[in-house]
Automatic annotation (TrEMBL):
Residues 165-258 form the PDZ domain. It comes from Pongo abelii. The lineage of its organism: Eukaryota, Metazoa, Chordata, Craniata, Vertebrata. Gene3D superfamilies: 2.30.42.10, Cysteine Rich Protein. This is LIMK1 isoform 4. InterPro entries: LIM_Homeobox_TF (IPR050453), PDZ (IPR001478), PDZ_sf (IPR036034), Znf_LIM (IPR001781). GO terms for molecular function: DNA-binding transcription factor activity, RNA polymerase II-specific; metal ion binding; RNA polymerase II transcription regulatory region sequence-specific DNA binding. PROSITE patterns: LIM_DOMAIN_1, LIM_DOMAIN_2, PDZ. It comes from the Eukaryota. Residues 260-291 are annotated as: Disordered. It is found in: Nucleus. Keywords: DNA-binding, Homeobox, LIM domain, Metal-binding, Nucleus, Zinc.
Length: 305
């Protein structure tokens, strides 16, 4: 939190009063006999004692405070600020683009391959926690080579780690072509496991999806968010209702981890939340194919957070 200092001045007639009448410096613990001193954080300070706790620079006009510690601007943002993955500069104000674990300035949210700015609502995929692609380049650069070298119907296990926010339009035929299951919490009851359930994609009907989309959603993928709400905050009895509500737009943040052995085979411990309502791919017409678009997650930066 950035704050402005208040500079106080002793009147000359009070300079000779007893020590008990003089303010005490919050830093050194000594009485303040100086003609001028500083007031901050509901305390008094010698001007020379009011310094950044990291670099010891004198804080003469403005300062940053966190948990009772004083910082200059540079050290505060170095310790508590968010670094843009695109330019490596600190993000100090405005909107922040969040993709997986990474944060970007809006102007730095660009495709690694073609350099195109990825606008709000444009398709994108974050690969291996670091590489950002627009939807077109991801499909051409990452997915297509895998499909050409591996069996076209099962490229999922050969794709890298990805985090994708997919927006699935409302369905006119009343089917998502998607079902989910839940992994039971790990650990004994009463140890904070009540809300640690893991929801995964259990089944996907390729006949209800366009080719690029069906290769972005895989059996075993973890669902991290539903309509922008973290899965841990969604009641279990509402998860399937939200996913199967085909009259509304559905947004899912999905994590595909090829090294997650729990997600590759949904064993007997997983509990299906619904049975897939599929249309056989041979009977699916063009009207049944709903092409999702991918969305970006924006948050407003708060320096005091």
């Amino acid at each position: 939190m950035r704050l402005t200092l208040l500079c106080c001045t002793w009147r000359e007639e009070r300079m000779g009063e007893e020590g008990s009448e003089l303010p005490m410096c919050a830093s050194c613990g000594q009485r303040i006999y100086d003609g001028q001193y500083l007031q901050a954080l509901n305390a008094d300070w010698h001007a020379d004692c009011f310094r950044c706790c990291d670099c010891s620079a004198s804080l003469s006009h403005q300062y940053y405070e966190k948990d009772g510690q004083l910082f200059c601007k540079k050290d505060y943002w170095a310790r508590y600020g968010e670094s843009c993955h695109g330019c490596s500069e600190q993000i100090t104000k405005g909107l922040v683009m969040v993709a997986g674990e990474l944060k970007y300035h809006p102007e730095c949210f660009i495709c690694l391959t073609c350099g195109t700015f990825i606008g709000d609502g444009d398709t994108y995929t974050l690969v291996e926690h670091s590489k950002l692609y627009c939807g077109h380049c991801y499909y051409q650069t990452v997915v297509t080579p895998v499909i050409e070298q591996i069996l076209p119907d099962s490229p999922g296990s050969h794709l890298p780690h990805t985090v994708t926010l997919v927006s699935i339009p409302a369905s006119s035929h009343g089917k998502r072509g998607l079902s989910v299951s839940i992994d039971p919490p790990h650990g004994p009851p009463g140890c904070g496991t009540e809300h640690s359930h893991t929801v995964r994609v259990q089944g996907v009907d390729p006949g209800c999806m366009s080719p690029d989309v069906k290769n972005s959603i895989h059996v075993g993928d973890r669902i991290l968010e539903i309509n922008g709400t973290p899965i841990r905050n969604v009641p279990l009895d509402e998860i399937d209702l939200l996913i199967q509500e085909t009259s509304r737009l559905l947004q899912l943040t999905l994590e595909h981890d090829p090294h997650d052995t729990l997600g590759h085979g949904l064993g007997p411990e997983t509990s299906p939340l619904s049975s897939p309502a599929y249309t056989p791919s041979g009977e699916a017409g063009s009207s049944a194919r709903q092409k999702p678009v991918f969305a970006r997650t924006w948050v407003a930066l708060s320096p005091s957070a």
